[in-house]
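We modelled the chain as a single entity of 244 amino acids. Its sequence is:
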Amino acid sequence: MTMVDYKTNKTKNVANWWQSPLGQAVLEQEKSALQSLSQHFHGYYQLQLGLNPSLLPALSQPNIQTVIAAQADIQACNEALPIKCHSLDLVLLCHALDFSADPHGLLREVDRTLVADGTVILCCFNPWSLWGLKRLFSWQDTAPWQGHFFTKTRIKDWLNLLGFDIIDCKPLLFRPPLTSAKWFKHCQFLERWGRRLWPFWSGSRIVVATKRTIPLTPISKNWRSKQLFSGRSVASPVTRGTSP
């Protein structure tokens, strides 16, 4: 099997898992949470990376929302987006960081395409959770356990290096990753208690960060006209009288 075939099979496995009952339950929670964070979705050009079904909330103001993923509006490499620099107002990474071969390169590409004061929103799995524990004891060549679950501290460090400030973080998914839809539904009460008692152990989180820009304040300089002569009084020229 070539490297291209391996990457293609890996992408198909991830796409198939999102269509499973457990994957659909995760998407439903994240879509609902993103709708509650609609105040952070601003600007005209908004892009989603990672998943084909759009999780971008419907907004009242006019905008253009585009999805880059397999079988989506545009198919492209997330680490080399066919988008010009400083042209996007918002980028939503739906677990694109979890399954990226170069996560820091992906964030650099997001930084390149965002305008000043642009916003990036990340949906990521949490390694310090029952989902992260499940990943440790699972075959890591199957979805979604083949991905990399990054801690909030690691993501914050990467964003700080690129000039981003985290302005909001919403924990989600406190139920264990049960494959049975029936038992997964029975554990719904854990969501309410988890948000109150153990938000650090959430299965996934939504991180909102804004691009930091340094305002340039012009410094006015007191200009004064150059004096040809010094401030001293200039002596009047002496005229010599002519002899009669």
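As a brief sanity check on the tokenised model: The chain is about 30% helix and 20% strand. The radius of gyration is 29 Å.
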